[in-house]
């Protein structure tokens, strides 16, 4: 069964509440998103398996540890998810990167795929799907469904902010996926934005507003 983890680390909470401020500019916002993603990756990789390896220090030989088992991949949901990738790669630089692009149909309000490019062996990897905002949960749920259709079996979802509505939908649609959220906010407003939130993460990351 998937588990829901709401981060309680003081550095994560401090950085999230700092970037909520409307006066924080694009450069600082982007850097903070990267730092938060790095801290969240540290927590989300806590249960990765280790294997013994023989190494030699400047003083002697010893049995050390290295990552074992499946290799890793990071799959951002375009476009805002791109802001989290570099922070995660600083923690796991050997990970491969895929991309999933979705847009919301203005009539049906349902997510529609417009781009999907994944590592060829993605089905054999532990995949971290990332998107800063888990609002309604529609796009995130669709992205996880797409990955499952392509044979991916081991996924973890990371977001900076989550709304209760999105968290409920993702947990219901994908009960096998662990979810890590930097903070759980109050609700969605009538326009589907997280409240109190931090505005449009994509616009603030890329300076398009």
UniProtKB/TrEMBL annotation:
5-phospho-alpha-D-ribose 1-diphosphate binds at residues 79, 104, 131-139, 200. Binds 1 Mg(2+) ion per subunit. The magnesium is bound as Mg-PRPP. GO terms for biological process: UMP salvage; uracil salvage. Uracil binds at residues 194, 199-201. GO terms for molecular function: GTP binding; magnesium ion binding; uracil phosphoribosyltransferase activity. It comes from Sellimonas intestinalis. Its EC number is 2.4.2.9. Pathway: Pyrimidine metabolism; UMP biosynthesis via salvage pathway; UMP from uracil: step 1/1. Keywords: Allosteric enzyme, Glycosyltransferase, GTP-binding, Magnesium, Nucleotide-binding, Transferase. Its cofactor is Mg(2+). Catalyzes the conversion of uracil and 5-phospho-alpha-D-ribose 1-diphosphate (PRPP) to UMP and diphosphate. Residues 7-208 form the Phosphoribosyltransferase domain. One of its GO terms (cellular component) is cytoplasm. The keyword Protein biosynthesis does not apply. It catalyses: UMP + diphosphate = 5-phospho-alpha-D-ribose 1-diphosphate + uracil. Allosterically activated by GTP. This is Uracil phosphoribosyltransferase. Belongs to the UPRTase family. The lineage of its organism: Bacteria, Bacillati, Bacillota, Clostridia, Lachnospirales. PANTHER family: ADENINE PHOSPHORIBOSYLTRANSFERASE, URACIL PHOSPHORIBOSYLTRANSFERASE, CHLOROPLASTIC.
């Amino acid at each position: 069964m998937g588990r829901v983890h709401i981060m309680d680390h003081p550095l994560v909470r401090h950085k999230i509440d700092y970037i909520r401020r409307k006066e924080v500019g694009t450069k600082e916002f982007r850097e903070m998103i990267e730092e938060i993603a790095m801290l969240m990756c540290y927590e989300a990789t806590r249960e990765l398996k280790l294997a013994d390896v023989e190494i030699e220090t400047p003083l002697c030989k010893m049995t050390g540890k290295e990552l074992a088992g499946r290799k890793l991949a990071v799959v951002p949901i375009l476009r805002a998810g791109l802001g989290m990738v570099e922070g995660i790669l600083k923690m796991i630089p050997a990970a491969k990167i895929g991309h999933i692009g979705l847009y919301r149909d203005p009539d049906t309000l349902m997510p529609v795929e417009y781009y999907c490019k994944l590592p060829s062996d993605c089905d054999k990897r532990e995949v971290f799907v990332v998107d800063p905002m888990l609002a309604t949960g529609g796009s995130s749920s669709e992205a996880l469904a797409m990955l499952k259709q392509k044979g991916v079996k081991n996924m973890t979802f990371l977001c900076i902010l989550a709304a209760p509505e999105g968290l409920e939908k993702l947990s219901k649609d994908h009960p096998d996926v662990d979810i890590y959220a930097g903070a759980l906010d109050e609700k969605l407003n009538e326009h589907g934005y997280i409240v109190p939130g931090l505005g449009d993460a994509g616009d603030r990351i890329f300076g398009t507003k």
